[in-house]
Automatic annotation (TrEMBL):
Signal peptide location: none
3-hydroxyacyl-CoA dehydrogenase C-terminal domain span: 185-280
The protein's name in its UniProt record: 3-hydroxyacyl-CoA dehydrogenase
Source organism of the structure: Sporosarcina aquimarina
Family in the record: Belongs to the 3-hydroxyacyl-CoA dehydrogenase family.
Keywords: Oxidoreductase
Pathway in which this enzyme or protein is active: Lipid metabolism; butanoate metabolism
Length: 281
């Protein structure tokens, strides 16, 4: 295993690139243009510097990560030599299929193609390639450098060899892997979206404040973060796309809370926009 290519330099893409680089892999991060990648590089460098100065990274790992990270706007250049490609673009099935069709043409036949999705179908994505047996979902969690879990989701055609390969990568990234047979929402997203959506309904109905709903879940049920805080961190637009997908595939109990819909319409997207269920300076 030599090179991991990450497609998409948003929050998740940057996190996956960082975790892969500090674990010793050569990493190429790809996005639409150099301006976007320069911003991603700045964020990753700041995280590397902070982790090093706080003692979380030894100097050797820090220097190796700096040397291992490359930034490339040309998709073919970024992916042609990869052993593993991890796609981390928006949760839109049409966009993911388009990316995988391009990767299928560019990458070596033995390259494994993984989608970092919380809800989408690796079977549907893999069917649009000539290598469905080498397509799998690797669902990372935010923030990637702190969260220990990767959901490894096998599609209908995903081979045992591919599942074993990505589970070995998870170990190399110092993560724990759980193996999941594909079904909309997998394990964590189905549970998490239900909890978050009900918290939004509670807020909309005036049952309690956002602060007290989150406090109740943290202190009463030992959740490390409240469901509304978590939705703000993930991004309310991302959460809405997930809910709409689950609603379409699993039915009425996943109908998005009207308050979530209105917040997204108003541009209240959570932490990334400065305002969601909470305000951020």
């Amino acid at each position: 295993m030599k090179q991991i290519t990450v497609i998409g330099s948003g929050v998740m893409g940057k996190g996956i690139a960082y975790a892969s680089a500090v674990s010793g892999f050569k990493v190429v991060l790809n996005d639409l243009n150099d301006e976007i990648l320069e911003s991603a590089k700045k964020d990753i460098d700041e995280l590397l510097d902070s982790s090093f100065h706080k003692g979380f990274l030894k100097e050797e790992s820090y220097q190796n990560a700096k040397n291992n990270l490359l930034y490339e706007a040309n998709l073919e250049e970024a992916a042609k030599d990869a052993n593993l490609v991890i796609e981390a673009v928006l949760e839109k099935i049409e966009l993911k299929v388009e990316v995988f069709q391009k990767l299928d043409r560019i990458c070596k036949p033995e390259t494994v193609l993984a989608t970092n999705t919380s809800t989408m179908s690796p079977t549907e994505i893999g069917a649009q390639t000539s290598r469905p047996e080498k397509v799998v979902a690797m669902h990372f969690f935010n923030p990637v450098h702190k969260m220990k879990l990767i959901e490894v989701v096998r599609g209908l055609e995903t081979s045992e060899e591919t599942v074993a390969f990505v589970k070995d990568i998870a170990v190399a990234l110092k993560k724990e892997a759980v193996e999941v047979n594909e079904f909309p929402g997998f394990v964590t997203s189905r549970m998490n979206c239900l909890i978050g959506n009900e918290a939004m309904n509670l807020l909309m109905e005036g049952v309690s404040s956002a602060e007290d709903i989150d406090k109740a879940m943290k202190l009463g049920l030992n959740h490390p973060m409240g469901p509304l805080e978590l939705a703000d961190l993930v991004g309310l637009d991302t959460r809405l796309r997930n809910m709409e997908y689950l609603y379409a595939t699993l039915g009425e109990k996943y109908r998005p809370c009207p308050l979530l819909v209105n917040y997204v319409k108003a541009g209240r997207l959570g932490k990334k926009s400065g305002k969601g269920f909470y305000e951020y300076s």
